[in-house]
Structures are given as structure tokens and as C-alpha cells.
Design a protein that fits this description.
Butyryl-CoA Dehydrogenase, subunit A, domain 2; Butyryl-CoA Dehydrogenase, subunit A, domain 3; 4 domains; two-stranded antiparallel sheet; 19 helices; about 10% strand
């Protein structure tokens, strides 16, 4: 087996990592950018927050220009075009720090990720020179036009057409894009259309081009500070030199850029979860019921502990991935090499997207519950956090689509010979027939190995039964995805907590891992009757229980210890750098 298999995307399923990158490894540049972003939020965004929430969306433009002046728009733009060209960890930290800004974080994210990066990675030197300095400075704001009324996650079903003009100087675009963030004020749009109705291609479209029109602002549940409109093309004339990338290769741009959007979304979501925890902890200490602060009640402490534990595991998974990506990109030059480095961790990007968005949803929901009736009032910040969070399970590919992608990408890599999953599954079949009575010295690592074997067993049975028709078994694939997500998060938490002092970090890790084992056992057993029957099913059911074996733990005491630290710090118990 490859000695460094754990550094490959998905390789952690077969090989334990030697170490992982964590927030404790941030260098001075990362910390300084984080401080700059926090100052920007406090000084520039917060004074305008209420006005933005109540429809003064043009304030986004001024905020983006200020962000550009501070260098926050150019972290991934090459220096020769006015950017800083910093490691990917930096842009992820910025996304996390901006989580407090709700709708403005959507404005920022759409501009810097899916709005700017297609040009960074696929633009010609002339296109980059023309547009990137404006985007890095905030003079122009960018948007990304992929979704259509009849095609959301199924991006290849787009119907917007592009026809070459008789003089060969322009492409004429016709079609409608919807849910386009920044459409109210963006000056540059990356638009996907099919040339002659067949070849999906990306185009750089300026706001002022003839035939580019806009719908009204959508009335949204949340992220109200952001602009969301339809973009309509009626014989829109786009110069031929504004084709982005290769004709007919638009899907490469769309899907590669979404990988970046996914891990940034996960980071922003965890920033939001930490904020929800801080708001809730502070409120719980101040709010009294039955003659004492509600923070003293066990069920309130249980909620705070769960919010903290899940945030810790997700944060650990996010920055573990960023460390891998940045290491992979250290010696890369050229857009193709950089994209290949990012694509290597597409599985992890989908994991982070699902994990982060669902941890955030859990945190804000429990935050509202801790606030009681006040949580339903718009006068309290948890109410907006609750509304703003919901879109994250839809953005950047729905969580259902990403759940199918996670095991699907692993299986495809196995079939290509990139990951020896088949060999591992065959070895496992023999191992499961041999009883083992040895007590492991390292129970946490043994439990993680058990979860890895469980998902190999489940996916292996599914692949044997359905072969190339496995894509139709979405419910089974989703179970495999959930176990994979929990493995990655729990292992990240274990490896990180062992670098820190024990205490609360060990408690948060223990809580997450224990529940991951419980969830995995229940999920695997729920689909087992679809994978096997009779004696085979009974043998496999016994194997499921063996692979998820864990002793009862006093989780009440564990949660109380975590909650006491959360309340003392009035928020997430971040380790000292």
C-alpha cells in the first residue's frame, strides 16, 4: 500500500493519517487576515446591518469596495492582477470570519469564489488583465449564472443557447438564469450556455451588453441582505473573445469551481454555528426561570454541549482538508495543476459542505429553542441566524446531491485503480468470518477502524449486488455517505484533540465519536435487508454490531463538563493558538 495513501482524496478510508493540519497551525499571515476580517465586520458591516436587512441592497457595493481596499477580495487572485495569491486556508478563514454578516457573506462568497475563480483558472491573459484588477479591488462585482428555471442540480440540462452571429464576431445568447446572487449590482457574469444547443460553454458577460436584462429582487426566507434576481438574455451580444475556457467544456469550469465553493461554504457554516453557540450561551446565563439562570438546567446544558461538540468535529475536518489542499498546491504552477490539486479533494469538499451546513442548522435550531419565545422575535439575532442558515443545504449542490457524490466518487476512483478499495473489501470479507477476542489498546482508533470497515462492507455488498446500476439505490448510497461523513469528522476530532490538552477537547471528541458509532450502527442495519437476506443477512447484522461495538458512557456527565466550559467562555471553547 502507498505509504502516503492518506494524503490522497479518500485515502483516509484505507490508511490512518500520520497527522493533520488544524487551526492551531495557522501562521501569522492567516491570523492577521482573520483579525482584519473581524475588524471589517465590526467597523464596516455592523453599522449597516439593519439597513441591509431591510432592503438597502446597494450598500453591498460600498462594503465590497472597502473589502477590496483591505485585500479581502483578492486572496486568490494572482499578484500581477492586483491580488494577494495566498494559500487556500486564508480564503477559508475569511469565509468563516464573515459568517456573522449573513446575507453579505453570500454577496462576498459569490463574488470571490464562483464569480472570480472561473476567470482566475480558465481565463486568457487578456481576459484576466481586463477584469481581474477590477474584481480584486471591488470596482466591479462578479456573479455566476448556472441555474435555470428547469435545471438546478442537473446543470447539464441547461437550455440557454448561444449562436454565432453571421459576421462571426459575437455569440448571441438567449435564455434565463435564476437565483443569481449579486445580480442586482454585479458588472461581470460567468454565464453557461450551449453553443448551437449542444456544447455547454462558459462566457464572460458584462452587465451593459445589449440584450442583458434582469428580473426583480426575489423575496427570500433568509440572506435578505444579498441580491438575488433572474438574469435574462434576449439576443444578448457577447464578443467571441469572451468565451471562457474551451468550447464544449463548460462543465469542467462549473464543477471544478463548485468544489471550492463547497469547502468555503462549510467553513462559513461552522463560523455561523460558533456564533449561534456564543449567542445562546450568553442568553442562557442571563435568562432566569424558576428563580435561576436557565444555564443551570441540564437540558439547556445538553444543547450547548452538542453544539460545541459538532462544531469542534466539523472545524477539525475543514482545516484538515485545507492543509491537504495547500500542501498539494505548494509546488503547483498553472491553472490546470492547481485545479487538479483541488479536484483531488472533491470528496472531502462535499463532506465538508454537508457536514458544515447541517451542523449550522442544528446549532441555530437549538439556539432558537434556548431563547424560547424570544428566539422567534426579529429583535434577537438568533432569529436571523435561523433564517439565513437554511439556504446552505441548497447552495453549491443540494445536500442530497452531495451525499450521492461522496460514495459515487469513491467508487469511481476505485474502478480507475486510484484507490485500492476492492482489495480492501475482499480482505474484509475474510476477516469478518474470523472471530476476534482481542481488546484493542487504543479504543478510539479501533472504533474508527471499525467504522471504516463497516462502510467498506456496506458499499462492497451494494456494489456486488447492483454493479453499474448502483446509482439507482440512492437510499443505500446516502447511508454510506452519512457513515463516511461521520468517519472523517470523528477521525479529525480525535487526531486534533490528541494534540491539545485533554479536558474539553477530549470530551467533545468522545461525545461525537460515541454518537457516530450509534448513528452508523442504526443506519447500516436499516439498509441491510436490502443488501442481503436469510443467513447472510444475519451474519452481516452480527458484523455490523461488532464493527460498531462501544461501551456505554455517562454522556450526561460528559455533556455537563463541556457545557461548563462553554458557559465559562460564553461560547465555543477555541484552543489557544
Amino acid at each position: 500500500m502507498d505509504k502516503k495513501l492518506w494524503k490522497k482524496g479518500g485515502g483516509w478510508l484505507l490508511q490512518r493519517p500520520e497527522s493533520i493540519f488544524t487551526p492551531e497551525d495557522f501562521d501569522d499571515t492567516v491570523r492577521e487576515i482573520a483579525r482584519t476580517t473581524r475588524t471589517f465586520v465590526e467597523r464596516e458591516y455592523l453599522p449597516l446591518a439593519e439597513r441591509l436587512e431591510h432592503g438597502e441592497l446597494e450598500l453591498n457595493v460600498a462594503l465590497m469596495k472597502k473589502a477590496g481596499e483591505l485585500g479581502l477580495l483578492g486572496t486568490e487572485v494572482p499578484e500581477e492582477y492586483g491580488g494577494l495569491d495566498l494559500p487556500k486556508t486564508v480564503s477559508t478563514v475569511v469565509a468563516e470570519e464573515l459568517s456573522l454578516t449573513g446575507g453579505f457573506s453570500a454577496t462576498y462568497g459569490a463574488h470571490t469564489s464562483i464569480g472570480t475563480l472561473p476567470l482566475v483558472y480558465f481565463g486568457t491573459p487578456e481576459q484576466k488583465a481586463k477584469y481581474l484588477p477590477k474584481l480584486a479591488s471591488g470596482e466591479w462585482i462578479a456573479a455566476y449564472c448556472l441555474t435555470e428555471p428547469g435545471s438546478g442540480s442537473d446543470a447539464l440540462a441547461a437550455k440557454t443557447k448561444a449562436l454565432l452571429s453571421p459576421d462571426g464576431k459575437h455569440y448571441i445568447l438567449n435564455g434565463t438564469k435564476m437565483w443569481i446572487t449579486n445580480a442586482g449590482f454585479a458588472q461581470l457574469f460567468t454565464v453557461f450556455a450551449k453553443i448551437n444547443g449542444e456544447k455547454l460553454t462558459a462566457f464572460l458577460v458584462e452587465r451593459g451588453y445589449p440584450g442583458v436584462k434582469f428580473g426583480g429582487e426575489e423575496k427570500k426566507m433568509g440572506i435578505k441582505a444579498s441580491s438575488t434576481r433572474m438574469v435574462i438574455f434576449e439576443d444578448a451580444k457577447v464578443p467571441v473573445e469572451n468565451v471562457l475556457g474551451e468550447i464544449g467544456k463548460g462543465h469542467k469550469i462549473a464543477f471544478n469551481v463548485l468544489n471550492v465553493g463547497r469547502y468555503k461554504l462549510g467553513a462559513g457554516a461552522i463560523g455561523g454555528a460558533k456564533q449561534a453557540l456564543a449567542i445562546s450561551a450568553k442568553y442562557a446565563k442571563e435568562r432566569e426561570a424558576f428563580g435561576r439562570p436557565i444555564a443551570r438546567f441540564g437540558l439547556i446544558q445538553q444543547k450547548l454541549a452538542e453544539m460545541a461538540s459538532r462544531s469542534f468535529a466539523a472545524e477539525s475536518a475543514i482545516y484538515r482538508t485545507m492543509g491537504l489542499i495547500d500542501e498539494a498546491l505548494e509546488s503547483k504552477t498553472g491553472a490546470a495543476a492547481v485545479l487538479a490539486g483541488i479536484e483531488e479533494y472533491a470528496i472531502e469538499a462535499s463532506i465538508i459542505k454537508v457536514l458544515g451546513s447541517e451542523v449550522l442548522d442544528y446549532a441555530v435550531d437549538e439556539g432558537v429553542q434556548i431563547h424560547g419565545g424570544y428566539g422567534y422575535s426579529a429583535e434577537y439575532p438568533i432569529e436571523r441566524a435561523y433564517r439565513d442558515s437554511r439556504i446552505n443545504r441548497i447552495f453549491e449542490g443540494t445536500n442530497e446531491i452531495n451525499r450521492l457524490l461522496i460514495p459515487g466518487m469513491l467508487l469511481r476512483r476505485s474502478m480507475k485503480g486510484e484507490l485500492p478499495l476492492v482489495d480492501a473489501a475482499l480482505r474484509l470479507q475474510k476477516e469478518l468470518l474470523e472471530p476476534s477476542f482481542d481488546e484493542p489498546q487504543d479504543k478510539e482508533m479501533a472504533q474508527l477502524e471499525g467504522l471504516k470497515k463497516l462502510v467498506l462492507m456496506t458499499a462492497g455488498l451494494a456494489a456486488q449486488k447492483w454493479a453499474d446500476k448502483i446509482e439507482e439505490e440512492q437510499e443505500v448510497l446516502a447511508v454510506a455517505a452519512d457513515i463516511l461523513i461521520d468517519i472523517y469528522a470523528a477521525e479529525s476530532a480525535v487526531l486534533r484533540s490528541r494534540r491539545l490538552n485533554k479536558g474539553v477537547y477530549a470530551d467533545m471528541t468522545q461525545l461525537y465519536l460515541y454518537q457516530a458509532l450509534e448513528r452508523a450502527q442504526a443506519a447500516a442495519l436499516s439498509v441491510l435487508p436490502r443488501l442481503a437476506d436469510g443467513d447472510e443477512m444475519r451474519v452481516m447484522a452480527s458484523a455490523v454490531r461488532r464493527l460498531t461495538k462501544h461501551e456505554p458512557v455517562d454522556l450526561v456527565e460528559v455533556r455537563r463538563r463541556i457545557a461548563s466550559v462553554v458557559l465559562e467562555k460564553e461560547g465555543y471553547p477555541a484552543p489557544k493558538a
